Amino acid sequence: MVALLELEDRRTRVTIAPDLGGGVAGMWAKTDAGDVPVLRPLAGDRPFDLASNVLVPFSNRIGGAGFVFEGQHFDVPPNLDGEGLPIHGDGFQRRWQVEVSDPSRVVLRLDDGAIGPWHYSARLVYSLKNGAFGTQLEITNTGPRLPFGGGFHPWLPRFADTKLWFHAETVWLQDDRFLPSDEVAASGDWDYLTPRALPEGLVNNAFCNWIGPATVLQPTLGIAVTIVSPMDVAIVYSPSASADFFCFEPVSHAVDAHNMPGQPGLIALDRGATVALSMSIDWQGLQQ
Q1: The domain that contains 256 carries what CATH number?
Q2: Which residues pair with 164 in a beta bridge?
Q3: d(Cα 6, Cα 103) in Å, to the nearest integer?
Q4: Domain boundaries, position 19
Q5: Count of domains for the chain
Q6: CB neighbours (10 Å) of residue 286?
Q7: Whole-prediction pTM value?
Q8: How many angstroms separate the CA atoms of 170 and 269, rounded?
Q9: Beta carbons within 10 angstroms of residue 271's beta carbon
């Protein structure tokens, strides 16, 4: 059994799993028709069975067996069975300590984050206010100066009538290793300026210069879900239309930014320096 903490107010209920990467185990909207899932409820006892993961000290994959920073090459080994490349850092694989737990706020702490060259501590603050669920992640570098990043990995229910709606300027196409190949305009099949269904096949792409909220229309559940973050990259993932989920991931940088010129979106932290990342998820009822 996974030990869970609970946040709850009159509109929303959220469960948190400190021992499972400090992630979110579920989020439900309290509607007139009963509780419905805003995020996919916990599906098992593995990190990617969660409703939302915390990504630290980087998001997604790093190619090239590592990266070069300020003239020095740093190795980053694979960290997940079945993955040939390092992915999503190590925060989602660790147990987090509980500092605060009450109906409106949960604070978690990770003192010994370490993967590849990174050493860091982190603090997660989950909050619930008027039904809106907020997440703030503070990352402090406890090792040598390095580029840091991260983000959040919500898993949302996917139905035949689910539609996604957000604005981004570009999208990265990917190769067969799921690493970026070409950055193109977010137009045509990549245009979500108006609500549209997700692709029938695999989608696993980073959208850049994401501006404003992302809205997920869920007519089956009778709600619309809004995801907001000051970060301007969003990764959209779903294996196919037969999957019962998809992911909309607000992150600080594109896939393999460590090996892009200028390392866009990554933040160089000296020892002792801190960076904060945040996301908020809310819901509204759909008019029938």
Answers
A1: 2.70.98.10
A2: 196, 216
A3: 6
A4: 5-285
A5: 1
A6: 13
A7: 0.97
A8: 27
A9: 12
